[in-house]
Amino acid sequence: MNKRNIYTQLLEALSDTPVVFLRGARQTGKTTLVKQLAEGSSSSENNRQYISLDSATALAGALDDPTGFLQGLKKPIIIDEAQRASALMLAIKEDVDRERHAGRYLLTGSANILTLPGIVDSLAGRMEVLTLYPLSQGEIAGTHEDFIQALFQNDFPATGAGKGSLSKEALLEAMTLGGYPEVLSRSTAKRRAAWFDSYITTLVERDIRDFSNIQDISGLLRLLRLLGARSGTLYNQAELSRSVGMPTSTLSRYIPLLEALFLVWFLPAWSSNLSKRLVKSPKLHVIDSGLACHLCGADAGRLADDSIMAGRLLESFVVAELLKQSSWTEHPVSLYHYRSQSGEEVDVVLEDRAGRVAAVEIKLSASVSAHDIKGLASLCDALGDHFVRGVVVYTGQEVIPMGDRIFAVPVGMMFAGE
């Protein structure tokens, strides 16, 4: 069983918040994690009953009489797949307002219930939300990585051999595997592909139907495959509409569903002008690189032969790893991408609460040139002292200074433990 790096944050939230919602895609390990929490402590605060709304009987009770359903449960309680009965949220609010105790409810959900009408209002000030993503590379290796915190620290290594060596071949293999625990437990590409096929079918035929009344299942599958091929690119809804043969009005309904199920994520554009961040095009990323590769029909061999596809999917892979680390880092940040008026780009911009910025450029190459740091240098010049550090992650083995506060670092450093 892989130790999850968000475990400490989950315990902290339960120690002072009445309702904690652990959300994430299906099969990322939410149930395993909350059961581990319930069974791993004899203290009263963590010794909690577990119930799943995947049970038809439990779901019927929650839907028919939410208040009576909750009254029959011993607190504290874990309610798994809580998004299947959104009517419970108002009943939980009423119960918490009567007896406000930290950690009273631990909810999990494979769809983002915060997108449902009234949920945010009903539990405002009573609920903390944590997101569990597929396994990070550090979690797979059994380490607690925090590359984000390292980027903002003064003692970031300026030269020398990087920690966590990772060859290009091993990197491509890691990209095709992704981070779903079940995929990692299967020993052959054939069996992993079968799991992904089953996973997609379950999502479309069950979860999406539960969440919304979608009839055009074949169109949704076409869209999902196309999004896999577009992972790591700027999102252009009009162009996507033409390519998939789907009206933009339909796309405007389908894309938020895929976001709510934590399959895709949009990396917003960064600008020093806050208002401009809302109008610039975001970048589309499939959150799990293994799923993206499956949707593209790409194995490690094909990625080795197709540098354009491999580069885009590597970008999504690194972005997803930073997104995962952002869920537990001791240095909270928001993630963006950057494109200047003159065309310089940076793949990931990390901005902390003090307005300080670190930036990451991603290259599937064993060497880094002056051309590769143009975007980082542009951002450094624009921000002055607010720019803390820029790095180009690459498949080489050395940390190499490339300019003012800019370094080339081995990609394996992102996943090395503390």
Please describe what this structure looks like.
With 418 residues, this protein is α/β, with parallel strands linked by helices. It has two domains: 7-131, 3-Layer(aba) Sandwich (Rossmann fold); 137-414, no CATH class. Helices cover 43% and strands 18% of the residues. A seven-stranded mixed β-sheet has the order 6-14-15-13-12-11-10, sandwiched between helices. Strands 2-3-4-1-5 form a five-stranded parallel β-sheet, with helices on one face. Strand 10 and strand 11 form a beta hairpin. Helix 9 crosses helix 15 (289-296) and helix 12 packs across helix 15 (289-296). The longest helix is centred in the middle third of the chain and has 23 residues, at 189-211. The two termini are 20 Å apart. The model has no long low-confidence stretch (mean pLDDT 90).
What characteristics describe this protein?
alpha/beta; Rossmann fold; five-stranded parallel sheet; 18 helices
In short:
The protein is α/β, with parallel strands linked by helices. It has 18 helices and 15 strands.
Q: How is the topology of this model organized?
A:
Layout (H helix, E strand, L loop, with lengths): L6 H10 L2 E5 L6 H10 L9 E4 L3 H9 L1 H6 L5 E4 L7 H11 L6 E5 L9 H5 L3 E5 L5 H5 L5 H6 L7 E2 L6 H10 L3 H4 L4 H23 L5 H14 L2 E2 L2 H8 L3 H13 L3 E4 L15 E4 L2 H8 L3 H6 L1 H20 L6 E7 L5 E8 L4 E6 L11 H10 L3 E8 L3 E6 L2 E5 L8
Parallel strand pairs: 1-4, 1-5, 2-3, 3-4, 12-13, 13-15
Antiparallel strand pairs: 6-14, 7-9, 8-9, 10-11, 11-12, 14-15
